[in-house]
Design brief:
The structure holds 2 protein chains of 2 kinds. By secondary structure, chain A is an alpha/beta fold. Among the domains of chain A are: about 110 residues, OB fold (Dihydrolipoamide Acetyltransferase, E2P), CATH 2.40.50.140; about 150 residues, Response regulator (Rossmann fold, 3-Layer(aba) Sandwich), CATH 3.40.50.2300; about 40 residues, no CATH class. Chain A contains 9 helices and 14 strands. Chain A is rod-shaped, with a radius of gyration of 71 Å. The termini of chain A are far apart. By secondary structure, chain B is mainly alpha-helical. Chain B has one domain. Chain B is built from 3 helices and no strands. Chain B is rod-shaped and about 55 Å long. At the A-B interface, strand 7 and helix 8 of A face helix 1, helix 2 and helix 3 of B.
């Protein structure tokens, strides 16, 4: 069965170019599609050989789904102008993934179809949007309490000498950093290890994170991490305004030095890193400065040691000098004291002697007195005794005895006291109290 | 006190700072001075060497890591 035709009468066709010309006529003359300011996001932005810049302008909904899309072009002349204006205002190269406010005019070409021609761009909108995004990330990092985490990370060694570098191997920035570091004129040694990563575009976040992971598995070999990029005029920093990367760096267990920045621009990564410098060269200078500070501190300590030795010896010498100076005075003092004591003693001698003499004299006096008394008493006693003896002698005298009637017989001069002393014929004398008589023994 | 060979820069400089503090103390005995001075000279040498003399072993270790990375 034959399919019923859509058009019952055989249609009279026109050429496509005729048709497209109609669209051209309709669209290209409509004022409301001319020089209109449109908010969109750039996508798949690219330059062709002629210097024309092509991009897709898209709009996404809250879920991130693309809800509108149109091809756009900046003709080479416009692009050259807008490139510089945009770079100057935002510090960024116009690139994919940017929110833009562009002035566009619809353009329909019978061969190339419909697109919009970008006439102008308002960089302040992009700047505001980037700033808003950055602020959102910063607010989130703050709310999570991790924004200052890496700044609080202790330095395993100060000055840091073992440096893990995250950079693109061939990049001018890496070369600048290495030259600066290894060519330092202080003889400072640095030990570097490159962990390569892509430092611009969509690959930035995953490759930098992967590099950090590799460093983390050798964590005890390093004192810090340096993330550097740069060299040349290009400065596409969008990738570094990324929550995932910022959070990764904030939580990294070594201090991170970031030298990716633009003179005027600060990325989220700059906020979370322990140290933020503008360029790779500045990162190297910072590290060298740490080293020279340490060398200066060593010089200072050496000088302090020397002066401590000088001071201690000087203090000891001073101490000694003080005591040395003290000796004569002390000696003089001792001599003086003793002299005074001696003088006192000398002065006291006569008094003491007099006292002593007086005491002795009194004592003697008393003795003499006592002797006199006792002599007198003894004399008296003797006298009495003599008297008694005398009395007794008188009483017992031969005369008194003879008077009482006793006689004394003598032979010659000898007294006879026993009859046995006499022999018959002895001539004896008998003595009486009054006179004597001679007799012969029979 | 760590053996000199195993000391890190941080350990050496910390000991040095403490030693200097002792030496600056007015109570520091002149009898200790010689020992303190000798030790501080040793520590200064260790520190300077750590900062300026190349550690070839460490260089090699890092070169190996870079190779693997």
């Amino acid at each position: 069965m034959q399919q019923p035709s859509l058009f019952p009468s055989k249609p009279q066709g026109m050429t496509l170019s005729e048709f497209n010309a109609r669209i051209e006529d309709h669209l290209n003359g409509v004022a409301s599609l001319h020089n209109q300011w449109v908010i969109a996001e750039t996508s798949d932005l690219r330059l062709n050989r002629s210097g024309h810049c092509y991009t897709e302008l898209i709009e996404k909904d809250a879920k991130g789904e693309t809800v509108a899309k149109i091809g756009a072009v900046m003709w080479a002349g416009t692009y050259r102008q807008l490139y510089h204006i945009f770079l100057q205002s935002t510090g960024q190269v116009l690139s994919t993934g940017m929110k833009v406010l562009v002035n566009v005019t619809v353009s329909f070409h019978r061969l190339y179809g419909m697109k919009v021609v970008i006439n102008d761009i308002d960089p302040s909108y992009t700047l505001g949007d980037m700033e808003r995004q950055r602020q959102e990330i910063l607010d989130r990092l703050k709310a999570e309490g991790i924004i200052d985490l890496n700044k609080q990370q202790p330095w395993p060694n100060m000055p840091p000498q073992r440096i893990a570098i995250v950079s693109a191997p061939g990049a001018a920035g890496y070369g600048d950093f290495m030259n600066q570091l290894q060519g330092n004129s202080y003889g400072l040694q640095f030990y570097t290890c490159l962990f390569s990563a892509v430092m611009q575009g969509a690959q930035t976040v995953p490759t930098v994170k992967a590099a950090l992971d590799r460093i983390n598995s050798n964590i005890d070999k390093f004192d810090c991490v340096v993330i550097i990029r740069g060299g040349g005029a290009t400065s596409e920093l969008n990738s570094f305004d990324n929550y995932d990367l910022a959070s990764y760096v904030a939580n990294f267990p070594l201090p991170v030095i970031v030298g990716i920045g633009h003179e005027r621009d600060v990325t989220v990564l700059d906020y979370v890193a322990a140290i933020r410098v503008k360029t790779p060269t500045a990162a190297a200078e910072w590290l060298i400065k740490c080293g020279t500070n340490a060398l200066a501190r060593l010089d200072e300590l050496q000088e302090t040691v020397a002066s401590a030795v000088r001071d201690t010896v000087a203090a000891a010498r001073e101490h000694l000098a003080y005591y040395t100076s003290l000796i004569p005075a002390v000696a003089r003092g001792i001599i003086d004291t003793n002299r005074i004591r001696l003088d006192n003693h000398a002065r006291n001698i006569p008094f003491a002697a007099n006292n002593l003499l007086a005491n002795q004299r009194t004592h003697l006096q008393r003795m003499v007195e006592r002797m006199g008394d006792s002599v007198a008493r003894a004399m008296q006693r003797e006298q009495q005794r003599l008297q008694a003896l005398d009395d007794k002698a008188v009483l017992l005298s031969p005369q008194n005895t003879l008077r009482r009637g006793y006689s004394l017989v003598r032979v010659g001069d000898k007294c006879v006291t026993a009859a046995s002393q006499l022999q018959p014929g002895d001539n004896i004398t008998v003595q009486f109290a009054e006179g004597s008589a001679d007799a012969t023994v029979h | 006190m760590e053996s000199n060979n195993e000391m890190t820069y941080t350990q050496a400089v910390t000991e040095l700072e403490q030693l200097v503090q002792k030496m600056q103390d007015p109570q520091c005995s002149i009898d200790n001075l010689t020992a303190y001075t000798k030790r501080s000279k040793e520590l200064l040498d260790i520190c300077r060497k750590k900062l300026t003399a190349a550690d070839e072993q460490l260089k090699q270790i890092l070169a190996d890591i870079q190779q693997q990375g």
